[in-house]
Amino acid sequence: MSNKYRNLFLAFGVVAIVIMLFSFDMEYDELLGNLKKAGYWFPAVLLLWVVMYALNALAWYLIIRNDKKNDIPFMKVYKFTISGFALNYATPVGLMGGEPYRIMETTPYLGAAKATSSVILYVMMHIFSHICFWFASIFFFIALYPVKWAMGVMLLIVGAFCMLAIYFFSKGYKSGMAVKGLRMAAKIPFLRAKVSRFAEEKKELLERIDSQIAELHSQHKKTFYGSLGLEFVVRILGCLEIYFIMNILTTDVSFAACILIQSFSSLFANLFFFSPMQLGAREGGLAIAAGGMSISGGYGVYAGLITRIREFIWIVIGMCLMKVGNSKK
């Protein structure tokens, strides 16, 4: 990717960081006090994400290398993964920043079709692992806690949503998503003309992308399930973050409870995907989920605060990495 486009992504990220700093509703003395209270648990949370991002990168790397023909170093994929997630955290509507960046960075190594299909497949895998995690958490909750009437209704709604999403994802894996996605976008009034023209001009490329998506599911099942498994492991490791933070406040919270808190709070936060860094939604989701586990909602708010600081630090790291190690291909 040329420095001009890379600088545009970087400028967008810097603007987003400045906006977040001004919209952060807390005095800096109070912030420092909370970090001191966290003690050694906060560095543990930061280091945990070194491992989690490595597994994210490995899940994407498996997809890239499924045909053994593409020569791209793993550390490049790791770097693009961190920077891509940093852009996603900072971007309203989630995936509008990080995924174009990843495609543009990997195109010199993979070609446009393979770069695009690998990123689409990885995004699908990342979202699909969330859905599988939410669906599995329903049965985990039923096994551990008594289910009252109101909770039973909520679990049925979540289960129905997850099953519907799994159905659509399975259809997408079998036939591809690029052409179908553009057909859906072409129905939006103010996008109809541009999307239709783009779909016509890039018809061959889009069909090649869809064929590569379908090929991974049908002919490379080991890669498919390996990538999905790694992403699911990342979901479980993410629960350690909640466990570490809760241990700052109390020793009465089990790891099993943290799995359920993470699951239901992430489901709640993703309903507000249009908000940069899911501002407010993350804290509210953690407070509600903690309350549902008969844990003080204040613990959930504190967990949301520490999580927010961790996200901010990794956004800054991701933005810095965009200007590091960009040797020309």
Give an account of the 3D structure:
The chain is an all-alpha fold and 329 residues long. It has one domain (3-321). Helix content is 80%, strand content 0%. The chain is built from 14 helices and no strands. The protein has helices spanning 3-23, 28-38, 41-64, 74-90, 98-110, 112-144, 149-175, 178-185, 192-201, 203-219, 221-249, 255-270, 281-292, 297-321. The radius of gyration is 20 Å and the shape is globular. The N and C termini lie close together (9 Å). Mean pLDDT is 77; it is low at 274-278.
State the main characteristics.
mainly alpha; 329 residues; globular; single chain
- How much of the sequence lies in strands comes to under 5%
Radius of gyration: 20 Å
Overall average residue pLDDT = 77
SSE pattern, N- to C-terminal: HHHHHHHHHHHHHH
* Most strands sheet: none
> Portion of residues in helices?
over 70%
| Total tally of structural domains | 1
N/C terminus separation: 9 Å
Question: What's the total helix number?
Answer: 14
Envelope shape: globular
